[in-house]
Design brief:
With 123 residues, the protein is of the alpha+beta class. It is built from two helices and seven strands.
Length: 123
C-alpha cells in the first residue's frame, strides 16, 4: 500500500512551517525595552530612564523624600521617616529591584529590560 502526499498535506505542512518561523521571530527578535526608574508617591507616578541624572523630590504624608538618580542607579537620599530604613537600603540598578519609604508612601522601582543574569541573592 503506497501513500501519496496530496495537495492539502503540502498546504498544511507549509502553514506549520510558516507559523513556526513567525512564532520564533516574535519571541526572539522583539526589540529590547530600556530599563526605567519608576517613582511612585501620593501625588502620582514618574518614570525616568535608568541613565538619568536627576534629583527628584516626592512629597508624602510626612513631608519631602529626596530620590537621587545617578550613574545608572537610584536611591532614596533622604526622607522624613524616623527609622531611615529606606535611606540605609542603598542603591538599586537592576530590573525588579525596589526600595520604599513606607511611612511616607514613596516607592522606587527598576522596570523594563535589564541584566537577567543570576545575582548573589539567587545564587
Amino acid at each position: 500500500m503506497k501513500t501519496y502526499i496530496k495537495t492539502f498535506d503540502i498546504i498544511i505542512i507549509l502553514l506549520v512551517i510558516i507559523l513556526t518561523v513567525f512564532a520564533a521571530y516574535i519571541v526572539y527578535m522583539k526589540p529590547k525595552v530600556r530599563s526605567q526608574i519608576l517613582i511612585r508617591g501620593q501625588d502620582g507616578e514618574w518614570t525616568y530612564p535608568v541613565d538619568a541624572e536627576e534629583t527628584v523630590k516626592v512629597y508624602g504624608p510626612l513631608g519631602e523624600t529626596v530620590v537621587r538618580l545617578h550613574g545608572n542607579s537610584a536611591w532614596i537620599e533622604s526622607s522624613p521617616c524616623e527609622s531611615q530604613t529606606c535611606v540605609a537600603a542603598g542603591q538599586i540598578s537592576r530590573q525588579g529591584q525596589w526600595t520604599a519609604c513606607l511611612p511616607n508612601n514613596v516607592l522606587l522601582m527598576v522596570q523594563g529590560a535589564g541584566d537577567d543574569s543570576v545575582d548573589s541573592i539567587v545564587w
